[in-house]
Amino acid sequence: MHANFTVRAGLRLTIAASIAAVVTGLAGCSNNDMGTMPGMDHGSASPAAATPAGSPASSASGTPAAGPHNNADVMFAQMMIPHHQQAIEMSDILLAKDGIDPKVTDLAQQIKAEQGPEIAQMSGWLAGWGQNPSPSMGMDHDMGGGMMNQADMDALEQATGTEAAKLFLTGMVKHHQGAITMAQQQVANGQNPEAVALAKRIITDQQAEITTMNQLLDQL
């Protein structure tokens, strides 16, 4: 394999393991007891130290979401950013191929158009909250959050035509299901109105896309 492929494979493992670490902790959290995940610096984002809009946290490095925030909001952004990044990588792999059903490529373009701006929005929130806008956590045991593992990504990259479209759709259905679970946790536990609103939009948009992907799979 050439160097770029090796680097990309390593990045995929890091992203997937990061999601696994966060999702495991998030499932047992509540609005009043979010705890601190290993390798994550939540800083002033604890519920007791919620940051109001217009505080000094707002800076040129990022704009925090309006209103107070808690650890659930920080964790949501820190886990959803790498999750979205992998969805975009999956879409880019598919879009680089020839002979793909136009309906599938249209969906891949739609996913990129939705999730790219959401990454920028969440990165701005984290920077404004005094958190790392490019979250990274250590390796963990299992993949989670519907993330594709390295073997899955390699298979997608090597596949062609209808096989590639099927692998993309099957993987993305699972990926979206993981995002919906994370977003539902945010709706239940988050404090920041903008972050909760984004989570609700992710649930609505990605559930609709799951329906579309299942229909496309039936047609291929």
Q: State which percent range the strand residues make up.
A: under 5%
Q: So, CATH architecture?
A: Up-down Bundle
CATH topology: Ferritin
Rg over CA atoms, rounded to whole Å, is 18 Å
- Residue share in helix: 55-70%
Number of domains: 1
Shape category: elongated
What is the CATH superfamily? Ferritin, core subunit, four-helix bundle
Sheet with the most strands? none
Average pLDDT score: 78
Q: Can you write the helix and strand succession as a string?
A: HHHHHH
Organism: Micropruina glycogenica
Keywords: Signal
Protein name: DUF305 domain-containing protein
Pfam families: DUF305 (PF03713)
Care to give the gist of this entry?
This is DUF305 domain-containing protein. The chain has helices spanning 3-26, 71-95, 102-128, 150-158, 161-189, 193-219. With 220 residues, the protein is mostly helical.
Please tell me about this protein's structure:
It is a single chain. The protein is mainly α and 220 residues long. It has a single domain, classed as Up-down Bundle (Ferritin). It is built from six helices and no strands. The protein has helices at 3-26, 71-95, 102-128, 150-158, 161-189, 193-219. Helix 3 runs antiparallel to helix 6 (193-219) and helix 5 runs antiparallel to helix 6 (193-219). 41% of the residues are buried.
Key traits:
signal; Ferritin; single chain; Ferritin-like; DUF305 domain-containing protein; about 0% strand; mainly alpha; elongated; 6 helices; about 220 residues; DUF305_CopM-like; disordered N terminus
